[in-house]
Amino acid sequence: MLRPQVCGVSPIIFLLLFCFLVLPSLQAQPSHYEPTIESLNRHPLPQWYADAKLGIFIHWGLYSVPGWAPLTHPEHDFGNQDYIVNNPYAEWYFNTMRLEGSPTQAYHREHYGANYDYYNFAPIFDREIKKWNPEAWAKIFRDAGAKYVVLTSKHHDGFTLWPSSTPNPTLLPDRQHATRDIVGELTTAVRSQGLRMGLYYSGGYDWTFVPGPIRESGDHQKVKPQSEAYGKYADAHVRELIERYHPALLWNDIDYPKSGHPLEIMAEYYNAVPDGVIDDRFGVKHSDFRSPEYQTLDHISPTKWEECRGLGRSFGYNRAEGEAETIAPDELIHLLVDIVSKNGNLLLDVGPEADGTIPPVQMSRLQALGEWLQQNGEAIYGTRPWKRAVGETAEGIPVRFTQKDAAVYTTLLGQPKATSITLKGVSFKAGSQIYLLGSSRPVAWSQQGNDIRVDLPSSLPGHYAVVLKLAGPVS
User: Fold this and answer.
1) Mean pLDDT confidence for 456-461
2) pTM of the model
3) 396: burial class by Cβ within 10 Å (0-12, 13-18, 19+)?
4) Which CATH number among 3.90.1150.10, 2.60.120.10, 3.20.20.140, 3.20.20.80 corresponds to the domain 47-379?
């Protein structure tokens, strides 16, 4: 019996044509997102973000001109009243300079005068940024091992780092935004280095709409602008950022105005940037990751998270910070390893000076981190948590685990003092091999009950944290 033809084409040929020509084009179509939690929650975590592990945060703006904050609080005890008056965040300069009796107010009066308006820093900042080289920044961040960058496009003071076409009704035209399109220039430079570019926006605070200041804990909610005008303003700003720059991350801070439209913004963003990422600070029940600040987790999180923190106690440039206030290279590397072992990313902040100079003490940390990752990045990038994150050697050295493909990476958060170590509670299949990252030859090992003894060379490669690659089934 003859088989029917479809427009002169046999069914088999038609099916083959459909599979090879039509199905791929249908599958390539990105999802269309609606402004509902249900629709937004269908957005998958992009593979690039899960694999990246390290990003660079940049706080740069008018506050970088005075670049100062007190060093009273080494810990970030945000709920402490004394913390508000002695805020170590230099990017909060405009708030703390208005608090009677605060060290920042005293510093401002001494260096600029009691009546010197904060926004007078704008022409100084514009003059200084002429010296800035975005390509140099992008190379520094790439060499530090970062895979993405997040720039503060607008902080709480309302000053924007791009020439917004949405005018600020409360500021003079020459006080509203930087004269260079910092967002655009850095986006181009970062992408040319093969990195992803993200943008921070302060939606929850804008001290040009509700000036504050924040004097006590209860004021944190009171100064969030909720007027219809501010909602439209914030919406317009974020839409500009999406349409002009297509950021790989949309990183909102504090909250989003209730008069704004965060769900619509999120849907528009995903439809424009399908592999984009959104943080959890929009005040709605949708995000791609959680964003604890100066806080780590004590367990493996089933959902993605990202710790943001400065190299020192401040995000913005603080000229008072030195070696003692800046995280030590070994602590920084141990922090990254710990975060990654628990399904997190580290968004590590630099606070440049007004002219774009990254302070030497911060540069030294970026260089140390980049050198370590150059040797040991295999244990970081593209990895996933193992069955547990935390371990220890019999000699008392803390250990963190990550895994990729068939390998488990064991990172020692401390330098071994002998030529062997014993990994507690780890079993390895006979005949498998263990490598020391930075060395091409396998090392000798033996199973001793529930532990593994590993023989180390007399000279270990690199610094700060030794990584053992267990290439085979591990339990």
Assistant:
1) 92
2) 0.93
3) exposed
4) 3.20.20.80
